[in-house]
Design goal:
Length: about 325
């Protein structure tokens, strides 16, 4: 058993984070081995909500700092970026917060020694059922959930050794100084062909491949929570089976009880997409201009992989397990 686990949390503490942090306490923290240290970084707002974590760890260190100003030049770093509302700005802010959290981790480890296990995630995720945390993490390997990969790797939960996690958490520096300049020079080569776009999951996959980092699956379910028209919703995860866009760095199990259970529960989540009160992710219909376009959109996305389901319905499913 590792002597110490560091849990890193970064990004915005939202008004519904009491619900998501409660799920973290219920389904993630009990499976983290050894002494638990929680380190966080967020912009100011709802600071008091993080105190619910303090009784569950040896130390809680959370740094609240204003978001940096994203320059006009940075906002123009959108060559063939995925076309979603505020996607570039949000990615840059998220990556900055992850990097700041990594610095807090380094400061802590410089004083107290390296952690045996490091986990990074976001405070706006609802964790469903008990998290799948590996008992041993070899160096140079990261564990990630196989849902919401989107041409790369799930970028909302990462588990690994301290040194490998530091490389992953420095995605902002990699994007600015390495990846995007090469994209401008050879976009088709970097993106895998003409007409292909990029998203944060793809950039993360490029970083892991270039650093020689291997990926294994953590069969852990979680969903993003968002408030829309004064109601809390959970975004149903997307899963494309065993298809990976970077298969050369993936180490998969042939079969395991955890994987079989993951598949079964994913189907249960997917079945909620047609629940009463569910809505289409509003970010994806920004450019739809009329009823005909709405109908075309709904027909095209008949798999409902980006549906927002009322949170109380998702929580009932969790409670029934």
């Amino acid at each position: 058993m590792p002597e110490r686990t560091i849990l890193c949390l970064s990004s915005i503490i939202r008004e519904f984070s009491d619900l998501t942090l409660d799920s973290l306490i219920r389904n993630l923290l009990p499976n983290l081995p050894g002494e638990l240290i929680i380190l966080g970084h967020s912009p100011p707002g709802n600071e008091g909500l993080t105190e619910v974590l303090r009784p569950h760890c040896s130390q809680l260190i959370w740094r609240f700092e204003p978001d940096p100003i994203i320059s006009p030049d940075e906002l123009r770093m959108n060559l063939r970026a995925e076309n979603r509302l505020n996607v570039l700005r949000n990615n840059l802010l998220q990556w900055n917060s992850i990097a700041k959290c990594e610095r807090i981790k380094q400061e802590f480890e410089d004083e107290h020694g390296k952690a045996s296990l490091v986990v990074w995630t976001r405070p706006d995720l609802l964790y469903l059922w008990k998290a799948d945390i590996p008992k041993h993490v070899p160096p140079g390997v990261l564990y990630m959930s196989p849902h919401d990969m989107w041409r790369g790797f799930n970028d909302r939960l990462t588990i690994g050794d301290s040194a490998t996690m530091s490389k992953r958490m420095k995605l902002s520096s990699y994007f600015h100084s390495n990846w995007y300049p090469r994209l401008v020079e050879k976009p088709d080569q970097i993106l895998g062909g003409p007409g292909m776009n990029w998203n944060p999951e793809y950039v993360l996959g490029c970083l892991l491949k270039e650093h020689g980092i291997k990926v294994r699956e953590s069969y852990t379910h979680f969903c993003r929570v968002r408030k829309f028209q004064k109601r809390n919703y959970g975004m149903i995860p997307h899963w494309n089976g065993s298809r990976y866009y970077f298969p050369e760095i993936v180490e998969t199990d042939e079969w395991s009880q955890a994987r079989d259970r993951f598949r079964c529960r994913f189907q249960q989540l997917l079945a909620l997409s047609n629940s009463s009160g569910s809505v289409v992710d509003p970010r994806t219909i920004r450019y739809i201009t009329g009823p005909r376009q709405v109908l075309q959109y709904l027909l095209k996305r008949g798999d409902f992989t980006r549906r927002l389901v009322p949170l109380e319905i998702i929580r009932k499913l969790e409670a029934s397990a």
